[in-house]
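Recap from last week: sequence in, structure out.
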Amino acid sequence: MKQKMRILITIYAMLFLPGCVSWHSGVRPIEPPGRKPPATAPIVDSLKPTLTWEPSDLEKSTGVEGLLYQLVIFKPEGGFSLKTIIAYEKKDISGTSHALETALEPNTRYYWRIRPIYKKDGQEITGDWNGFSYIYLTPFMSGWAFGSPYFFNTPEK
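Predicted structure tokens:
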């Protein structure tokens, strides 16, 4: 009986309560904005964009020293492969923005993540990569993603 009731509630929710719930984890991007699918990817203004993010909550924590950030930008290898190609990586960024030092390829979708690196009680700690998660329900489809990277497109030239 309980199983049938759960199924009926799920069907009712999918048909009459469609919606989307999303949330961020880790450091939140500012520029390019952290859009989530199915939104179109923002197009950055150059092949060496400046990425900005909000400060980590760790900046307010007691006992945290030497807060730095690590940035990674990557793209899918292509085809149906799940492999990625690291296009740019920078460690030990002080502050909440970074202008890329090397150019990215034009007209390409890139994914990016940022994470804090800091010292607490004399030990170096590497935080979790940022990302977003979402769950959506509609009468005809549903989907979810957990810990997905943020993304942007580069201009044509």
